[in-house]
Amino acid sequence: MKTETQIAGREIAAHETFGNYTTKIACNNHKATCQRFLEFLEKGLYPQLLFEENTNGKDLIKNKITDLKQAIKLYEDAGI
Fold it and tell me: Whole-angstrom Cα distance, residue 72 to residue 78?
């Protein structure tokens, strides 16, 4: 399974290679999705019961937040 950062890198590479409207829309859509998901995770709207006793769950959330932030940064660095 690819991470959001890997997907962002692939989308940015496609946009840099082809530079058309379709690739820019794909980048914008993925960036917006990452931003919405990041907001969801940072607000803690996911069910707390799933993670109260499971430290792996907390680590997964932290890793996902880091991954989403890196993907968004890639898009911003690319000017998208």
Answer: 10
| Distance separating alpha carbons of residues 62 and 54, to the nearest angstrom | 13
| Residue whose entry in the numeric block shows the structure tokens 């919405």 | 36
Q: What is the pLDDT of residues 4-36, one digit of tens each?
A: 999 999 999 999 999 889 999 999 999 999 999
The residue ranges of every structural domain in the chain are 4-75
Single pTM value for the model: 0.83
Residues 9, 12: Cα–Cα separation, whole Å: 5
**What angle, 0 to 180 degrees and rounded to 10, lies between the N-to-C axes of helices 4-18 and 55-77?**
20
C-beta of residue 75 within 8 angstroms of C-beta of residue 14: no
